[in-house]
């Protein structure tokens, strides 16, 4: 990477991503590192101009209060402290990202002499050069879900290595209604990508049978994905790399030394130790809004770039608890109704993400003048910029009522519809 960098040291703060994003908003690249980074590690990172020591309530590790290390001090890099006492000085954390950026502006540009050269054009040029150099004449497999992350990775790889890329779309039985057909149409028929379609529905659902723990489900799905790719790779010659749409929130939420894990992401915590490929993850340091900006810069159509996100484990983390085929089908149908009504009522581009959840318990209802015992459906809708925090938008009651009426009348096994009003934090966007 040719861009200048400011390192954010996680000294126990809950707002590391706020600081990193604020610095990037100034046009300067920033990464989050653990508090115990060594001087050699700092000096090995490209173009580091300064360090922000970002303290907070999680500043005790293994029973000891952490402090700015001698390693950082002897690195010779300028250090700025947030909410962290050092030599009797403390800087309190501002509230908004804009205030954080303003507080750091003088440090970043005047003290560190960093250049404002962080932008998508430079990022794309860097990644294309790095991938060409690393991949050489070898071949790459890409896990292509059809979502924005994997689509942007595909565009980057096509730009970098062209026909050396093979895209594999795995239907694990946990996709939304009509999605496998749409992915094949867009990428194989329209974009002319080298696409392999694998229907592994039974394989995945058999592996997940009886598994209720969310973390175990994510890891099973992640591991099985890799096995499918390994099998497909053996059918091809020269495959040495596996590309993934891992993004920065996936890594941050999978835990650091001072921050507790929010959840394992299938492409971070779920990867098997005996992985047979070298990973290619060109987006792993980008936040979600930066991924979209990258897609726009690459010339991808808006319909693809601004498509609402979909988790790697798919409906597997929305069919709560142990997955059953009948409940999964109720989830798929209710989600399709929700998406149809949001599109019909002009909410498709106004709400960042919306989906349904079906829990693994039933409630008493009345159907055809008789008692019924069926599942509830929970509607989840959120707005966010970077997927690290999220708010619940106001949805007109008339729209919610129509969605409810359709779900109750059209979806087998559902007798109740609920609406989730919880922001992130304290809730996460997904239920599992």
Task: Characterise the protein shown here.
- It contains 14 helices and 15 strands.
- Strands 9-8-7-10-11 form a five-stranded parallel β-sheet, sandwiched between helices. Strands 2-1-3-6 form a four-stranded parallel β-sheet, covered by helices on one side. Strands 12, 13, 14 and 15 form a four-stranded mixed β-sheet that branches.
- The longest helix has 21 residues, at 214-234.
- The radius of gyration is 23 Å and the shape is globular.
- Strand 8, helix 7 and strand 9 (195-199) form a beta-alpha-beta unit.
- It has three domains: 5-111, Class I glutamine amidotransferase (GATase) domain (Rossmann fold), CATH 3.40.50.880; 120-305, Rossmann fold; 324-419, GMP Synthetase, Chain A, domain 3 (2-Layer Sandwich), CATH 3.30.300.10.
- With 432 residues, it is α/β, with parallel strands linked by helices.
How would you describe this structure in keywords?
single chain; 432 residues; alpha/beta; Rossmann fold; GMP Synthetase, Chain A, domain 3; 19% strand; Class_I_gatase-like; GMP biosynthesis
Q: Approximately how much helix is present in the residues? A: 25-40%
Question: Which regions are unreliable across 5 or more consecutive residues at pLDDT < 50?
Answer: 85-90, 259-270
Assign the CATH class of the largest domain.
Alpha Beta
Helix and strand sequence = EHEHEEEHEHHEHEHEHHEHEHHHEEEHE
End-to-end CA span = 35 Å
Total count of domains = 3
Number of helical stretches of at least 4 residues: 14
CATH fold-level assignment of the largest domain: Rossmann fold
The CATH architecture of the largest domain comes to: 3-Layer(aba) Sandwich
Biggest sheet strand order reads: 9-8-7-10-11
Strand content: 15-25%
- What do the pLDDT scores average to? 88
Assign the CATH superfamily of the largest domain: HUPs
Largest sheet: 5 strands, parallel
């Amino acid at each position: 990477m040719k861009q200048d960098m400011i390192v954010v040291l996680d000294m126990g703060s809950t707002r590391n991503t706020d600081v990193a994003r604020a610095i990037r908003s100034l046009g300067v690249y920033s990464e989050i590192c653990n508090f115990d980074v060594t001087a050699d590690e700092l000096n090995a990172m490209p173009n580091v101009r300064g360090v922000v020591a970002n303290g907070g309530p999680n500043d005790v590790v293994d029973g000891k209060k952490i402090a700015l290390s001698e390693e950082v001090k002897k690195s010779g890099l300028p250090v700025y402290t947030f909410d962290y006492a050092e030599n009797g000085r403390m800087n309190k954390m501002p509230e908004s990202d804009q205030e954080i950026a303003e507080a750091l502006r003088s440090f970043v540009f005047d003290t560190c002499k960093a250049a404002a050269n962080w932008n998508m054009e430079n990022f794309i040029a860097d990644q294309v050069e790095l991938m060409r150099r690393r991949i050489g004449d070898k071949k790459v497999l890409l896990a292509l879900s059809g979502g924005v992350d994997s689509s942007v990775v595909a565009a980057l790889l096509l730009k970098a290595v062209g026909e050396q890329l093979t895209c594999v779309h795995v239907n694990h039985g946990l996709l939304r209604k009509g999605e496998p057909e749409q992915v094949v149409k867009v990428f194989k028929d329209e974009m002319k990508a080298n696409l392999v379609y694998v229907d592994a529905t039974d394989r995945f659902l058999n592996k997940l049978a009886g598994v209720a723990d969310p973390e175990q489900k994510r890891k099973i799905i992640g591991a099985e994905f890799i096995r499918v790719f390994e099998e497909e790779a053996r059918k091809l010659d020269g495959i040495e790399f596996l590309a993934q749409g891992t993004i920065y929130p996936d890594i941050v939420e999978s835990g650091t030394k001072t921050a507790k894990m929010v959840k394992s992401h299938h492409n971070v915590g779920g990867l098997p130790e005996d992985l047979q490929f070298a990973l290619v993850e060109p987006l792993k340091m980008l936040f979600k809004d930066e991924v979209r900006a990258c897609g726009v810069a690459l010339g991808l159509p808006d319909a693809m770039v601004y498509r609402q996100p979909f988790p790697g484990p798919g409906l597997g983390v929305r069919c709560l608890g142990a997955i059953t085929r009948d409940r999964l089908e109720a989830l798929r149908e209710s989600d399709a109704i929700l998406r149809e009504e949001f599109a019909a009522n002009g909410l498709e581009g106004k709400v960042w993400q919306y989906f349904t959840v079906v829990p693994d318990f039933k409630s008493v209802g009345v159907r055809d003048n008789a008692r019924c015992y069926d599942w509830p459906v929970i509607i989840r809708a959120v707005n966010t910029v970077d997927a690290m925090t999220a708010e619940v938008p106001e949805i007109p009651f008339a729209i919610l009522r129509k969605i409810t009426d359709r779900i109750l009348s059209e979806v087998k096994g559902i007798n109740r519809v609920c609406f989730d009003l919880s922001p992130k934090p304290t809730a996460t966007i997904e239920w599992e």
